[in-house]
């Protein structure tokens, strides 16, 4: 008996906001059998209009909405805004405040990378166990934040002029203890997950992004560094205390999902080294310069500040007009750049539907960041 | 004689029914905003919410609770309404965070929506983000509400 | 392409391509601005990409100067070798905000131009897909980031 011929047709799948592994976005996938022909990212499900809101808040009130861009990594984003405000108003920051800022930023970076690592492993085979291990390890860091600031995620600790309060008694020993605990756990993660042959099979050679494509398409963060480009704002334009600290920029050459995972992994190691350096060598002194609560800006001043968040480079560009509130705040978000790279990946190489969640989470999107 | 026997049986059946319902609240796996990491911490092993029977589940038709975690934008508001209409009775809605309750820190934005305009809500949990203890307390309030209202005699008085 | 410092770049642009731009300024170390003429912006962009090595697109956005009657569109570009940021600015009159789309030169400006269209109303001629990115597809409320937007809840 002869069987009817199968004609390949393109089917559009809507991978929508209510899905365990999609996040707060909708991805339309044009599929031909198993091969993905086209990806369309339909973002905007968490659009809150932060840029418009910031025009209606004074400079210090603006920290609250902008922090809620990436909840796992609020330190780096708040630092971008605060540094732009300080540049626009001409405020100096004391040395000790810069070192404390670097310490909190590195803790935020580890927090975010643990989240990304857990999600990428979870979507590889739906192993919620590893995601829950990373959830518990993040509790160690959240306890440190709570001792320091009183809040777990949205601490609003950086203000123009420095930080809000000094480190409490015994905080540096707590930091050292947390670093020792996390180092032990990362050895477990490496053995269980990264050196696991099943995991490698699903991640090696998947979603390859070459060096030229990564630069041309505007990738940033671990996506860019996983393809061999060593751009990191902490080394290109040192801010806070990064000029005095000793750390390496991690790059990998292959550009596939495993390379991006390894970049995040080794970045966590570098962050732990930085935390130890700061705990040992932090200078003394004041932590804040006296700044009026509602400073008035000079008209026509612009300030662009770039910081390296866990996902990539964030830019905050402030325009002033002589009032108590900024005239316009433009935020250059890292995830919006990486989502464009994700859309073009179907054209660069052969992508199968089953690999799509793995590729999406190796790019590590946080949709609140790209929708603002 | 028959009436004197059936009344205590109704009470026992009522108790068992509400006990089973309140200790197996399955919310839809649906996070809308930035309170989502705190929600995931609640499902971790320190503030375990599965000991209360709460398991985030993927399919809407088999869930009985819609936990709206975080800020709702206009596009997402349509999806919240669709999901509410697709769940089967009895269904509950929990609004987690300050943003769904009253737009939170984005109170003057053109793009955010409060949940009262979309679906009827049972429990509001304030906070930005609410602490895990607050989320568990909110779930326990929902359990008390189920005990009072969802039994065998619900709607018969 | 040898690495150039910010001042050398600005001098060379003003010397060789002065008919394509209004001005080129150095704000501070690693921040350079070039204000291009609206009709010649594509040529200038091509020269910046091919001759001066600004191959990495970062972002794009606009500012609404309502009192001066203009809008300014800013493209943020990065050179992977010299690592400083160049802002390519174009002034557009507020009653006729349209300009050629830069996606011909840097493909990744696609999303950013869509956002500038839906927030400010700037029409990019030649853009492959000028549809709503962040707002719902049936949005009829106007252009939110303009200064005269009277949406709900925005206090004047």
Q: What's this model, at a glance?
A:
The complex is a heterotrimer of chains A (372), B (157) and C (156). Chain A has 372 residues and is of the alpha+beta class. Chain A is 47% helix and 13% strand.
Molecular structure report:
- The complex is a heterotrimer of chains A (372), B (157) and C (156).
- With 372 residues, chain A is α+β, with helices and mostly antiparallel strands.
- Chain A has a single domain (49-333), classed as Cytochrome-c3 Hydrogenase, chain B, CATH 1.10.645.10.
- Helix content of chain A is 47%, strand content 13%.
- Chain A has helices at residues 50-53, 63-67, 74-89, 95-125, 128-149, 171-194, 197-203, 211-216, 222-225, 233-236, 257-281, 334-348, 356-363, 367-371; strands spanning 11-15, 26-32, 35-42, 158-159, 162-163, 299-308, 313-321, 328-332.
- Chain A has a 3-stranded antiparallel β-sheet with strand order 1-2-3.
- The radius of gyration of chain A is 22 Å and the shape is globular.
- The termini of chain A are far apart.
- In chain A, 55% of the residues are buried.
- The model of chain A has no long low-confidence stretch (mean pLDDT 88).
- Chain B is an alpha/beta fold.
- Chain B has one domain (26-149): Rossmann fold (3-Layer(aba) Sandwich).
- Helix content of chain B is 41%, strand content 11%.
- Chain B has helices at residues 2-22, 36-42, 74-86, 98-102, 132-149; strands at residues 65-69, 72-73, 92-96, 112-113, 123-125.
- In chain B, helix 1 runs antiparallel to helix 5 (132-149) and helix 2 (36-42) crosses helix 5 (132-149).
- The two termini of chain B are 23 Å apart.
- Chain C is an alpha/beta fold.
- Chain C has one domain (6-125): NADH:ubiquinone oxidoreductase Nqo5 subunit (Beta Polymerase, domain 2), CATH 3.30.460.
- Chain C is built from 3 helices and 7 strands; from the N terminus they run αββαββββαβ.
- Chain C has a 5-stranded mixed β-sheet with strand order 1-2-5-4-3, covered by helices on one side. A two-stranded parallel sheet of chain C has the order 6-7.
- The longest helix of chain C is centred in the first third of the chain and has 11 residues, at 6-16.
- The N and C termini of chain C lie far apart (50 Å).
- Chains in contact: A-B, A-C, B-C.
- The A-B interface holds A 16-20, 24, 44-50, 52-53, 56, 64-65, 68, 70-72, 115, 132, 135-136, 138-139, 142, 152-154, 368, 371 and B 28-38, 40-41, 43-46, 56, 58, 60, 70-71, 73-76, 79, 83, 105-106, 108-112, 128-129, 131.
């Amino acid at each position: 008996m002869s069987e009817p011929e199968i004609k390949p047709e393109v089917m559009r799948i809507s991978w929508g906001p209510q899905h365990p592994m999609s996040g707060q976005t909708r991805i339309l996938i044009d599929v031909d059998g198993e091969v993905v022909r086209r990806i369309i990212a339909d973002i905007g499900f968490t659009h809150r209009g932060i840029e418009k809101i910031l025009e209606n808040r004074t400079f210090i009130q603006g920290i609250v909405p902008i922090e809620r861009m990436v909840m796992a990594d609020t330190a780096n984003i708040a630092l971008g805004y605060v540094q732009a405000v300080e540049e626009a108003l001409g405020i100096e920051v004391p040395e000790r405040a810069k070192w404390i800022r670097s310490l909190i930023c590195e803790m935020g970076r580890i927090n975010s990378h643990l989240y990304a690592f857990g999600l990428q492993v979870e979507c590889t085979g739906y192993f919620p166990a590893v995601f829950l291990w990373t959830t518990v390890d993040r509790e160690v860091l959240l306890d440190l934040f709570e001792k320091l600031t009183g809040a777990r995620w949205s601490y609003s600790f950086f203000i123009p002029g420095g930080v809000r309060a000094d480190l409490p008694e015994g905080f540096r020993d707590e930091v050292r203890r947390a670093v020792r605990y996390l180092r032990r756990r990362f050895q477990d993660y490496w053995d269980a997950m990264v050196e696991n042959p099943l995991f490698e099979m699903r991640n090696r050679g998947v979603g390859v992004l070459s060096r030229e494509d990564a630069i041309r398409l505007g990738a940033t963060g671990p996506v860019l560094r996983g393809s061999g480009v060593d751009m990191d704002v902490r080394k290109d334009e040192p801010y806070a205390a990064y000029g005095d600290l000793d750390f390496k920029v991690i790059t990998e050459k292959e550009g596939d999902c495993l390379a991006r995972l390894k970049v995040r992994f080794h970045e966590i190691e570098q962050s732990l080294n930085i935390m130890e350096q700061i705990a040992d060598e932090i200078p003394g002194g004041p932590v804040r310069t006296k700044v009026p609560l509602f400073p008035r800006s000079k008209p026509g001043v612009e300030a662009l500040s770039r910081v390296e968040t866990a996902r990539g480079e964030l830019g905050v560009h402030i325009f002033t007009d002589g009032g108590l509130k900024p005239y316009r705040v433009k935020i250059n978000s890292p995830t919006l750049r990486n989502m464009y790279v994700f859309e073009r990946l179907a054209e660069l190489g052969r992508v199968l539907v089953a690999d799509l969640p793995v590729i999406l989470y190796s790019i590590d999107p946080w949709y609140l960041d790209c929708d603002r | 004689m028959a009436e004197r026997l059936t009344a205590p049986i109704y009470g026992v059946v009522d108790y068992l029914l509400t006990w089973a319902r309140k200790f197996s609240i399955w919310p839809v796996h649906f996070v809308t905003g930035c309170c989502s990491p705190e929600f995931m911490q609640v499902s971790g092993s320190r503030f375990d919410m599965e000991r209360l029977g709460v398991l985030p589940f993927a399919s809407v038709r088999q869930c009985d609770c819609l936990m709206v975690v975080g800020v709702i934008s206009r596009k997402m508001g349509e999806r919240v309404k669709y999901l509410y209409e697709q769940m089967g009775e009895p269904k509950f809605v929990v609004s987690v965070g300050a943003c769904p309750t009253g737009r939170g820190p984005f109170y003057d934005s053109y793009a955010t929506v409060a949940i009262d305009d979309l679906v009827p809500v049972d429990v509001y949990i304030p906070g930005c983000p609410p602490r895990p203890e607050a989320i568990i307390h909110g779930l326990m309030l929902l359990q008390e509400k189920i005990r009072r209202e969802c039994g065998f005699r619900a709607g018969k008085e | 392409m040898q690495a150039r410092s910010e001042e050398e770049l600005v001098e060379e642009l003003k010397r060789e391509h002065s008919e394509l731009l209004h001005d080129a300024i150095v704000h501070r170390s690693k921040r350079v601005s070039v204000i291009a003429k609206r009709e010649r912006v594509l040529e200038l962009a091509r020269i910046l990409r091919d001759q001066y090595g600004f191959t990495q697109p970062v972002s794009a956005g606009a500012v609404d100067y309502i009192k001066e009657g203009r809008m300014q569109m800013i493209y943020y570009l990065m050179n992977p070798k010299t690592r400083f940021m160049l802002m390519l600015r174009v002034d557009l009159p507020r009653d006729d905000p349209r300009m050629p789309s830069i996606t011909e030169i840097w493909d990744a400006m696609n999303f950013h131009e869509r956002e500038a269209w839906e927030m400010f109303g700037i029409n990019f001629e030649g853009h492959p897909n000028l549809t709503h990115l962040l707002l719902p597809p049936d949005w009829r409320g106007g252009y939110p980031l303009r200064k005269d937007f009277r949406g709900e809840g925005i206090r004047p």
